[in-house]
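Give me the fold.
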Amino acid sequence: VFGLLVWALIADTTFYLHAANSWVLSVSIFLWVVTLLLFVIYLLQLQLKFYVIPWPLVLMIFNAAATVLYVTAFVTCAVAVQPTSWRQWDYNRRAAASFFACLTMIAYGVSTFFSFRAWKGLGSNAATSQVGDH
């Protein structure tokens, strides 16, 4: 949801005047579409049909890459905010886009942490680990 807000806020400014905002827009659109596709895959439980693919590893790699991309997008978007802009609404939208890019970056970072734990199997408890030993 935050990535969609970044996309909408940047698209509503004069992003074509600044190459930096085009990068933020590209990152937000690409990651929003891929995240939506992964959500549909998990919603329809298609990952069970493609059991050969190590889904926890795929999710961890995707979330880590998305975190890195959103770090660059957040820094780029924050640097492009100019308080002396001749169009006040561009300043407000770019500042809001920077805020939501930061939230999206944090969300992908937290998701990377949890997908790493799922990939390593660190979320299991003593009862589930004892069942497989017999």
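The helical segments are 2-11, 19-43, 55-80, 88-120, 126-131.
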